[in-house]
Design a protein that fits this description.
By secondary structure, the chain is of the alpha/beta class. It has 2 domains: about 5-35 and about 155-225, Rossmann fold; about 35-150, Rossmann fold. Helix content is about 30%, strand content about 25%. It is built from 8 helices and 11 strands. The chain has helices at about 15-25, 55-60, 80-85, 100-110, 130-135, 170-180, 195-200, 215-225, and strands at about 5, 25-30, 35-40, 50-55, 70-75, 90-95, 115-120, 140-150, 165, 190, 205-210. The strands form 2 sheets. It has a 6-stranded mixed beta sheet, sandwiched between helices. Strands 2-1-9-10-11 form a 5-stranded parallel beta sheet, with helices on both faces. α6 packs parallel to α7. The longest helix is centred in the first third of the chain and has 11 residues, at about 15-25.
């Protein structure tokens, strides 16, 4: 029996996740709970030693990179780093998947006296980067480049028969919970982190939490036991 797996993250990231779900032999059901809306913001990078991106949406919300191509880019995880490289940035460094790992990478590789850090981010973020850097002397400027707006009504696909719902962010999980978590008692949800699981709320048949905040780890723990990736040897 083919597992039907709902993907609740915003487009276009949902499409990339769908490809990965298919590789596990499962059927992806695209049901975004968030819509990415760009915001006008200060795009100047003058005086910045590095740009910080905590999502691919931030990269996509950055304008033509020609004037900033040589800036150091620190990305929260590999998917965000791939988006930065595809956009044309040449010095891209990757953290371990969450804000704490990004803060550790900043401390290990950047001099707080060499210039400010510009964080291109959304209205809602998972984790406080400035707090994670604490009193280490870094100057972080946050630029709000987009907002992730909740959909006005629950996608019909989330009311159809499903086996599993994927949550990549506390924001998406909270939106589903706000709709009353329909059908959750008969469903499992798979969450990218404990913070995402907390936002998903109670009442699920099973809550699966990725051992580390990376999509590959999420899909492996959620789908690996049910189906091997296509082409993998038994």
């Amino acid at each position: 029996m083919t597992l039907r797996v709902a993907i609740t993250r915003a487009m276009p990231d949902a499409e990339r996740t769908a490809e990965c779900v298919r590789a596990y032999g499962a059927e992806p059901v695209l049901a975004p709970l968030l819509t990415i809306i760009p915001c006008g913001y200060d795009t100047s990078t003058e005086g910045a030693q590095a740009l910080l991106f905590t999502s691919g949406n931030g990269v996509r919300a950055f304008p033509d990179v020609r004037g900033a191509r040589g800036k150091i880019v620190l990305a929260v995880g590999e998917a965000t780093a791939e988006a930065a490289r595809a956009a044309g940035f040449t010095d891209v460094r990757t953290a371990g998947g969450d804000v704490r790992a990004l803060a550790d990478l900043i401390k290990a590789s950047l001099d707080p006296g060499a210039g400010k850090l510009v964080h291109i981010r959304g209205t809602h973020v998972a984790g406080d980067l400035a707090a994670a850097l604490g009193g280490d002397g870094y100057q972080v400027e946050s630029r709000i480049a987009y907002t992730a707006a909740p959909v006005p009504e629950l996608p019909a696909r989330l009311r159809a028969p499903l086996d599993l719902i994927l949550f990549h962010s506390p924001r998406a999980a909270a939106v589903f919970h706000a709709f009353g978590s329909p059908g959750a008692g008969g469903l499992a949800c798979a969450c990218l982190s404990p913070a995402v699981a907390a936002a998903a709320g109670p009442g699920w048949r099973r809550v699966i939490v990725a051992p580390e905040p990376r999509e590959q780890a999420l899909l492996e723990v959620a789908l690996g036991a049910a189906a091997s990736p296509a082409g993998a040897s038994a």
